[in-house]
Amino acid sequence: xxxxxxxxxxxxxxxxxxxxxxxxxxxxxxxxxxxxxxxxxxxxxxxxxxxxxxxxxxxxxxxxxxxxxxxxxxxxxxxxxxxxxxxxxxxxxxxxxxxxxxxxxxxxxxxxxxxxxxxxxxxxxxxxxxxxxxxxxxxxxxxxxxxxxxxxxxxxxxxxxxxxxxxxxxxxxxxxxxxxxxxxxxxxxxxxxxxxxxxxxxxx
Length: 204
Ligand SMILES: Cc1cc2nc3c(=O)[nH]c(=O)nc-3n(C[C@H](O)[C@H](O)[C@H](O)COP(=O)(O)O)c2cc1C
What we know:
Helices cover 13% and strands 35% of the residues. It contains five helices and 14 strands. It has helices spanning 17-20, 65-73, 86-91, 102-105, 172-175, and strands at residues 24-25, 27-32, 38-43, 46-50, 55-61, 75-80, 110-111, 120-121, 126-138, 148-160, 165-166, 169-170, 178-180, 186-188. Strands 3-2-6-9-10-5-4 form a seven-stranded antiparallel β-sheet, with helices on one face. A three-stranded antiparallel β-sheet has the order 1-13-14, with no helix packed on it. The chain binds flavin mononucleotide (FMN).
């Protein structure tokens, strides 16, 4: 099949778009508001966008608290959402009044970050501490429709649980990172689904 995105005439019951780019990692974004209240929410429009320096991004549908706090306070932290933390991750997606600490609401503990103000999720084995770099507005197709905003952060500090390192490398199978698929489906990285391939070298 082929369809034009302007008319979106895919003919399917549900728009397939988010099922076409999977699995998507989940950025579990913690920020502080002006009063120092902790905000936490999962973002599946999330990824690293460069290696050196380390830049990451999350994309917000409408100007949500995470975006506002990241911009106003200049900092955010991305904790790794793992399979064992899936229920807490889902709880943290609920919207709350600004005075509610969403980390403790989700049954999680805050651990201090090394280089930025927002805490990381203590139960999560990995956290990226970021300085807000820029926000790129992605205008809606519809007049008056909700914009997406790509919030870009420069990573300035990284936490890795010592137990997550084996033979000098991060043991991704042990971490079991969560991933978002299409149609409300999720996946996780499992040890027996990880394989290594060495790219072939060009013959000269
Ligand atoms: C798995 C998952 C992924 C999500 N990804 C996004 C996303 O990429 N962008 C977005 O705007 N909302 C996303 N949401 C919804 C937000 O987490 C939700 O709106 C949350 O209340 C935003 O919190 P905040 O206002 O504290 O930033 C996602 C929710 C879940 C459960």
